[in-house]
From TrEMBL:
InterPro entries: IS1182_transpos, Tnp_DDE_dom, Transposase_InsH_N. Residues 193-216 are annotated as: Disordered. Residues 16-111 form the Transposase InsH N-terminal domain. It comes from Hymenobacter antarcticus. Residues 193-205 have a biased composition (Basic and acidic residues). Residues 344-465 form the Transposase DDE domain. Transmembrane segments: none annotated. This is IS1182 family transposase. Pfam families: DDE_Tnp_1_6, DUF772. The lineage of its organism: Bacteria, Pseudomonadati, Bacteroidota, Cytophagia, Cytophagales.
Amino acid sequence: MQGKKLFLDKEVTRFRLSERVRPHNLYRRLAELVDWSFLYEETRALYSRTGQPSLDPVVFFKLVLVGRLENLVSDRRLVEHCALRLDILLFLGYEVDEELPWHSTVSRTRQLFPAAVFERLFDHVFAQCVARGLVAGDTQAVDSAPVKANASLDSVAEKQAQPALGPHLSGAGLPHRATPTVPLITAPAHELRREAARQAKRRSEPGPVGAQHEKARLLSNKTHYSPTDPDARISIKPGKARALNHLCSLAVDTAHGVISHVQADFADSRDSLHFPRLLAGLQRRLRGCELRLRDLLADAGYANGSNYALLEARGVTAWIPVFGQYKAEIEGFTYDAQQDAYHCRAGKVLPFRKYDTTTDGHWLKIYWATCQDCQQCALKPTCVPGAKRKQLTRTLYDAPYCRAWQRQQSRRGQRMRRVRQGTVEPVFGNLIHHYGLRRMNVRGHAGAHKTMLLTAVAYNLKKLLKYWPQRQRSLAVALPRPLLAPNGHSWRRNRRPEAPTWAIQKRLLSI
């Protein structure tokens, strides 16, 4: 007979939420895995002793972690989703008939808590990963990726020139009554003039290129900013359109892929400039867990002479490919380390003369020969045909560059490159596609840093729940048969058929 289910919508008199959630459920195991009580002490100073009770700090952090685990970016959708899940209600500590917090309460609480509380939660989860054996600590892979900001590129505004201070005013600024009303974001006038001239030159280019620039809106971080999110920066990734982004920089342990450090940076600067702060935070966390960093893996975006020297000073081997057309040796010239000078093919000496800096602030060492040596040299037409003397420019960190270049050419350097690609790049793919890091739901640099910390915490918690330590297998040894049985009779008399090897091993293990 065909069955038909009738829905009566009756009121249930006996219902226990814990009985409806199975023991192997993700959120039930997560509630038992982490001790969340330390968050009360971390946030106690942020609340007053009087007034209405606020949102429970533990409930807040559990709620936002659910948003990362469920790949939900919007707070409004997060609250609606949690109200429909019995396991999440049990994880949050709410009954079925209790109202969840408003989405605006979650947003205000996120702004109330400083980034130090989020970092404390990250350290707590990371310490548990270390205790379970998921983190080796000796080898770390570093990388960065842009994350779309909560702002539109169509709403950017032009920066105004900074007001010039008169000679009768001090460096403290204008008097209060004479302070002009200027936008929050300003830029030096000479940078604005230089950028305007550059854009005018691009529009005046002949052919279809100039016509294309004439119709396009030329945007730059030097001339434009976002009033919605002033900390967002205009950046571009190869193969993708230009957008307002934040930069996510993280370090991943190569043992089991646990995130060991994460931070938010500005997206308009190079990765190498954020590396010293990343290294300091990473080493601080590893030292707190009694781990030592020995090898660091990164791509060519972190190649910098000061970074190489910094890693060598701290006893860390840098597996970072040398960026650009760096040459360890100059063709036709030999370097004398004792005299700090170069010798050319004709035997002339090019001693060290002075230090210099590039437009980016990198230090250089300048070597040149005397004009008399070059004018009387027979190799001058091929060596320096249009100059009076030969001049060589080398970086101040030439020795660390050379050592990094030699490591890059070695077989171990090629293997380390594959290890980095197989460690940190899949982590970024998971964070962006499965943990809600495809777009920011907050604004500002501090908010982006908190969101990245929560995403990394959710990722490490998932790693912690899935990890099962390998148990040591017992080894079965086949013993030789005795010549005589225990009763003194021959073993071969009235013997049973020989058992297979697996049966003997099973019998030995049962003893």
